[in-house]
Design brief:
The structure is a single chain. By secondary structure, the chain is α/β, with parallel strands linked by helices. It contains 10 helices and 12 strands. An 8-stranded parallel sheet has the order 2-1-12-11-8-5-4-3, sandwiched between helices. The longest helix is centred in the middle third of the chain and has 19 residues.
């Protein structure tokens, strides 16, 4: 076999024992879980913002960013639920480049998976303990989800993963809302089929166990744009796109029909500043159509302390080392503007 086996890593149960939640943290998370579920099942008309860096790179700037989100949420909490993005795994189209904090807790050092496991749990623990935020992460590797399963408020399945059977089956057993992105080619039937799978019960192999999932009633769609046959970015957040997804939901037997719109990626053509205009456009669409308002539960926004992205070795505090992000001043203005228009 052409692989080197370095060491056996601890199982999630042992890591959770070594790095536990306090009783207060459990209560805070449970309260937030209920508030977020109420949005997806229609009991609450609050708007969700899954917002934060493209990828979490270092603990200090991420927590500084989250401390700022906490102060803003206090101003908009009557209308908005903020779920910070702490994305600790980074999908790579070609497999090359920085793969996230799980792989490299120090972006300048060699991969160290054990240190990575400890680092990603530590940063999610700090967000909940110090700022009362249970956060969002991407389920890039289904078998790793259990390392954070007692901490997360929201899970996303990415455009490259949404057709994968193990992602779909694992999503069906995750105890929080799971967003299924449209695939990179844009076929919405793939996304809708993934939601059907995630909302259904399954028996399958997970981490060496035979398990049965109950089905995730809060699995839903994320629209993130796509790439057409000629390699061009195509957006799918417009009024007509949202009505199309609403019609697809109406033809299905799915419960809790919901959409989050990713304002970056192919929706913005990877022009991060377009996120401001796109976010306002979606809020406007909701205000024009009651069906869209019921369907669109929130947005995903890529944002950090500094505008843009930095190159390798620049070491700018709070500036993305992967995709470009909105800086803090623009982010704060946008959140307040969204709250005013809701």
């Amino acid at each position: 076999m052409q692989m080197q086996f370095h060491r056996k890593l601890p199982i999630p149960q042992d890591v959770k024992k070594d790095f536990p939640l306090t009783d207060r943290m459990v209560q805070v998370r449970a309260k937030r879980d209920e508030s977020i579920r109420a949005v997806f099942d229609g009991r609450s008309d609050k708007f969700i913002l899954v917002i934060g860096p493209c990828s979490a790179d270092q603990k200090e700037p991420v927590l500084e960013y989250i401390s700022r989100l906490r102060r803003v949420e206090e101003q908009v909490s009557d209308k908005i639920i903020i779920i910070p993005r702490i994305y600790t795994n980074k999908p790579r189209t070609t497999g090359q480049g920085y793969k996230g904090m799980l792989h490299q807790p120090d972006p300048t050092a060699k991969p160290d998976m054990y240190k990575g496991i400890v680092a990603i749990r530590d940063i999610h623990l700090a967000a909940l303990r110090d700022y009362d935020f249970s956060c969002a992460d991407e389920m890039l590797y289904p078998e790793n989800h259990r390392y954070l399963s007692d901490l997360l408020a929201y899970v996303a399945v990415g455009a490259r993963s949404v057709e994968n059977q193990q992602h779909r089956l694992t999503a069906s057993g995750v105890g929080v809302p799971v967003g299924m992105k449209n695939p990179t080619g844009g076929d919405l039937s793939v996304m809708m089929n993934s939601i059907v799978a995630a909302q259904s019960s399954h028996t399958f192999i997970y981490r060496g166990w035979e398990v049965t999932s109950e089905g995730n009633a809060y699995a839903h769609a994320i629209l993130r744009g796509y790439i057409d046959y000629a390699g061009r970015s195509v957006s799918n957040y417009h009024y007509e796109d949202l009505l199309r997804v609403q019609a697809l939901y109406a033809q299905s037997n799915l419960i809790n029909p919901s959409v989050l719109v990713d304002t970056n990626h192919n929706n913005s053509g990877k022009n991060y500043l377009e996120q401001i205009r796109i976010a306002k456009d979606i809020v406007h669409s909701r205000n024009q159509n009651s069906d869209i308002k019921r369907l669109v539960k929130g947005l995903m926004i890529e944002s950090y302390i500094e505008d843009g992205a930095q190159g390798y070795g620049e070491n700018v505090f709070g500036k993305s080392i992967t995709d470009p992000c909105l800086g803090w001043e623009k982010t704060e203005r946008l959140i307040l503007d969204i709250a005013e228009k809701l």
